[in-house]
Amino acid sequence: SLESIVSMSYGRLKTELFSRFWSIPENRLWKWKINALNAMKNSGRPEYEPAVKAAAELDASPEVRRMAEWVTAQISKGSL
């Protein structure tokens, strides 16, 4: 699920996704989370809000935190 990808550790992302989908380089595994956050935003489903907020606060990647903050701002504007 999208929530699973966003909350997954980078070690698990490497094990679960990189071995099967090598199109995103190992040093850019954070892109999986960016893509999942974008899909959450585009879906318009409010139940994604807790996962998005957790990513904004807790993710190790600054790119993911920035994207999650942007998605959170869209939620607060009612754009989700």
How is this structure best described in words?
There is one protein chain. The protein has 80 residues and is mainly α. Helices cover 68% and strands 0% of the residues. The protein has five helices and no strands. Helix 3 (30-43) runs parallel beside helix 5. The chain is elongated, with a radius of gyration of 12 Å.
Shape: elongated
**Regions with pLDDT < 50 over 5+ consecutive residues?**
none
- The helix content is 55-70%
* Helix/strand order: HHHHH
Rounded Rg = 12 Å
Characteristics:
80 residues; mainly alpha
Summarize this, please?
68% of the residues lie in helices and 0% in strands. With 80 residues, it is mostly helical. The protein starts with a helix and ends with a helix.
SSE order and pairing:
Elements: H1 2-7, H2 10-18, H3 30-43, H4 49-58, H5 62-76
Helix pairs in contact: 3-5, 4-5
